[in-house]
Design goal:
Elements lengths: L1 E7 L4 E8 L2 E5 L6 H9 L3 E6 L11 H8 L2 E4 L10 E2 L5 E4 L2 E7 L8 E6 L5 E7 L20 H16 L7 E4 L17 E2 H7 L9 H9 L9 H10 L4 H8 L2 E2 L1 H11 L2 E4 L3 H6 L6 E2 L6 H8 L7 E4 L5 H10 L5 E5 L2 H7 L8 E3 L1 H8 L5 E3 L3 H6 L6 E2 L18 E4 L4 H12 L5 E4 L2 H5 L17
Parallel strand pairs: 3-4, 4-5, 5-6, 10-11, 13-17, 14-15, 14-16, 16-17, 18-22, 19-20, 19-21, 21-22
Antiparallel strand pairs: 1-2, 2-3, 7-8, 8-9, 9-10, 11-12
Length: about 475
């Protein structure tokens, strides 16, 4: 038996390759599926099933394409309804893969169709649980994504409690837990950086699996402090339910090198968003006016999904040379398939053509210390939990995720200063603000990490147990 976790850091997402005696099952595959096919071919094995733990909201799964290319059957948990051929499994239904079996455990709560898959080895012993977004390491799935009709997030949290108590907690302590996500995912609040654990460890350390927790306490803790989900989540659910184009076709149509002249022409004719994915240190020094920065080396795809509201938005790319197709692939993972092309030669081509260039003012944390003496405003674009933990005393929290909600707070003419933890998110925020006409924005290089090395007055750290 082979079990391999295929973890994608920019999505904080785990897909799984399971093989036994020439047969393969894939759990929650990425949209680009060739690696799974190649791995099975190398082992002279055949992909038999594609198990989906639920209708994913934070990425476009590869289930449809993988089924088309291999003939494998797609399996969802009870109540799932799709626009393509799939097996809607019954609770406790068993699927055979080589010498092992995979049992469906219906675990509604994160969504109503959510299912975990319990793998039993060839001796029939419970070996591993592919827990989807029902159980993470350190957390459980947020219960506010599948509210419909009279079903509230508290109702879903109640369903999740029952699922955990009746389906997960009775499992043996040595059963391995393979979750769908780790730290960085917006599908939970307190996910661990670890990506593989055991049921026993989670019973000891996961706040949501406390043996003495009542249903009412669980509902309160799980729903408390939830931030609104990113805007692209419902759009990805729709694609995962209804189907989508093959990512290979997306790359073929999108990976078009454009001259400066053609790039400008298409930008003017289509009102395309110019997305610059270079490193933030390069971006601040010079970029095409009105372009938005979201760097490929950070949490790229989730930030694209959170900040670009329409997945049908036409996009023109400024990418590092050689990274164009990789960027298009990563965009497709969250459903952004409408890339019209990329600037051939990247930003250097624009500079050589002597075209207009904008830049972002940036100062060091040490210089900020001097500015604060003049009471110039500072905005912290980190998440509320980061801000609550410790922040500059005079800084106001305007989280990047919801920057549009705070536009009225930023001064129209006088300089103001923004920072995040290390400099990535603040440059994203600065690029958005510049595009909105706030040319008085100043970025703090190195973010809060650099600020902590100065004498700038900060709040004392709050006990982590009080954070939301």
């Amino acid at each position: 038996m082979i079990i391999e976790q295929i973890y994608t850091g920019c999505l904080a997402q785990g897909a799984y390759y399971i093989e036994s005696n020439g047969e393969v099952a894939i759990v929650d595959p990425l949209r680009e599926v060739q690696d799974y096919i190649d791995k099975a071919n190398e082992n002279n094995a055949k992909i038999k099933y594609i198990f989906e733990t639920h209708f994913h909201a934070d990425f476009v799964s590869g289930h449809v394409t993988l089924a088309e290319k291999t003939g494998a059957k797609i399996v969802y948990g009870p109540t799932a309804k799709t626009n393509f051929e799939a097996i809607t499994a019954q609770d406790n239904q068993v699927f055979k893969v080589g010498d092992i079996t995979i049992k469906v455990l219906h675990t509604p709560g994160h969504t109503m169709e959510s299912a975990c898959y319990l793998l039993k080895d060839k001796e029939g012993k419970n070996h591993a649980l592919f827990s989807g977004d029902t159980l993470f390491l350190g957390d459980v799935g947020r219960p506010d994504l599948a509210q419909k009709g009279d079903i509230t997030e508290k109702d879903l949290a109640g369903f999740l409690y029952e699922s955990l108590q009746t389906k997960i907690m009775p499992l043996e302590d040595d059963v391995i837990v393979y979750p769908a996500h780790g730290a960085g995912s917006a599908c939970g609040k307190n996910l661990s950086k670890e990506t593989i654990g055991t049921i026993g460890e989670q019973k000891k350390t996961n706040y949501a699996l406390r043996a003495d927790m009542t249903k009412e306490e669980f509902i309160k803790e799980v729903t408390d402090g939830l931030l609104p989900p990113p805007a692209y989540f419902p759009l990805n659910v729709k694609l995962n339910k209804e189907g989508y184009k093959d990512v290979d076709d997306i790359i073929k149509n999108s990976a078009k090198p454009l001259s400066v002249k053609d790039f400008e022409l298409i930008a003017n004719e289509t009102n395309a968003l110019i997305l610059d994915v270079r490193h933030q240190d390069e971006f601040v020094k010079g970029f095409i006016p009105q372009s938005i920065f979201i760097g490929i080396n950070g949490g790229f795809a989730p930030w694209v999904g959170a900040l670009i509201k329409d997945i049908l938005q036409p996009i023109l790319l400024i990418a590092p040379v050689g990274k164009e197709e990789d960027t298009i692939t990563r965009l497709s993972r969250v459903g952004f398939d409408n890339v019209l092309g990329y600037l051939d030669g990247s930003f250097d081509s624009w500079k050589k053509a002597n075209k207009e260039i904008d830049s972002i003012d940036s100062i060091s944390a040490a210089t900020l210390q001097q500015k604060l003496d003049n009471k110039e405003p500072v905005f912290d674009v980190r998440k509320p939990g980061e801000y609550d933990s410790e922040h500059i005393k005079v800084a106001e929290n305007t989280p990047l995720d919801f920057l549009n909600d705070y536009i009225e707070k930023f001064p129209k003419s006088d300089n103001f200063y923004i920072h995040c933890a290390g400099g990535y998110r603040s440059v994203i925020a600065a690029s958005i603000l510049k595009a909105r006409g706030f040319h008085n924005v100043v970025d703090i290089a190195g973010g809060f990490a650099a600020i902590k090395n100065t004498d700038i007055e900060r709040t004392d750290a709050v006990c982590p147990s009080t954070l939301k």
